[in-house]
Amino acid sequence: MKFKNTKKYLLDIASLRLDCKVREINRERKEVSSREYYWEHGKKKKQNPKYSKLSNEEIYSKNAPLIGQIRGGKINKKNPHLFTNSAVRAIYNNCKISPTDTGFGLNEEEQINFRKRNMMFKSYDEIFFGSESEQRTMETFFPTALMLDILYEKYDENLWRIVLGYVPLNIVFEKIKQNVKDTKKVYSLLVKDNWELLMTGIFRASERFGTHENSFEDIFTLDIEYFVSFYNSSFPSRQEGENRLAKIERVLSLFYEEVLKDKFEQFINEREGFEYHSIESMVAIQKEAQGYKKRIIEFESSKLLGIYSSSWDDNFLDELEALNAKEELIDEYSDLLHVTRISKLIDRVFEEMTVLQSKHEDSNHWGGNYLGYIKKYQKGNEILAYFSSGDSAELKPLILDSEKQADRWNEHLRRRLYIKKHPNSYLAKEEREQMEWFRDRRNKKL
């Protein structure tokens, strides 16, 4: 399997991740003197010292142009997998917030905190798959890419059933499939003509899919963390700084064959409710009824009965029923009444299925359905834009936002270190006063 969408997404976001982190480090280097002036004196005063920007040269002096290519997302024959192993090691070891700070001589715990507060990446996995903060921000992107690829490349009946659990999509899918037997062509038509409907089914699947193993807490979902865990357990790194994107197609294929196929089947077997059952036979019956109806009308004009509504109008059946009630429906047209009833009844079944599902699953704060929910809470507009256009620029604001969120915790660690190094600073005194206030308050309660 090629996993075109998933592979492109992982490469795009890895490139943007490095570029955004470099930008954030340079912002931090620019602002640190003003912030530390406040920590020392308790007064805000903008400092404008010369500062050293984190450059591609500082990251990887032996091949600075390669870092520029990685940050720009440029892939070529010499570097088909974005990173090289040596570039990965350079990025991991040389991207520092403070270029002069060092972890030399620190114990194991201090080394961990040093990397958290001063290094761009906390682990090699973070270079390729992002931090926890980023994964939370981008949580629906990976499952979306994965399902788009599997739906197109493999006719996995269980995954299709999961996605087609969204009733309006199921109806459109089966109607297209009556005329187009190749599932890849059906998929392409859905992408072309019913993009948001298809994505609503995928969003619904990404939110609802999950399997329980030995306990309720032991849940498997399509989140990227489960894929990374599978990758690391099945393919441990053979050397430090190994480019984990170099064999991503192979790992994704094995993840599907060894894990996802069984999980999709397990999910379907555990479900109850009409939404995961095929409606193919009902759509086929309706198509036959409509074809029979068309042939009758072509052979015998309905105007002979005094019916002037179009055969596709809602009033057409009403007029037939009125004639039947008056016993004015001649024998030649009795079949017309029955096939029109059949077609209409199946439409009503589909309407009731949609209404029932909507009643149980929609709510106002979701914006009406899973599409509204994902747009409001899970970056749905950006997902729709990115996977329809392939433009990685749609991802950049999200990566920058996740970097700012992650930096809030790193800021806490930097404050702790500053207090340790400057016990007489304003920041240290402020913390001591706060601690004394909390102690006094606790003692009064006792």
Q: Which key features would you list for this structure?
A:
446 residues, mainly alpha, 3 domains, two-stranded antiparallel ribbon, 21 helices, 2 strands, elongated
Describe the protein's architecture and organization.
This protein has 446 residues and is mainly alpha-helical. It has three domains: 4-134 and 421-445, no CATH class; 141-278 and 363-387, no CATH class; 280-361. 67% of the residues lie in helices and 1% in strands. It is built from 21 helices and two strands. Strands 1-2 form a two-stranded antiparallel sheet. β1 (211-212) and β2 form a beta hairpin. α1 (4-41) packs parallel to α20, α9 crosses α14 (248-270) and α10 crosses α15 (280-299). It starts with a helix and ends with a helix. The model has no long low-confidence stretch (mean pLDDT 86).
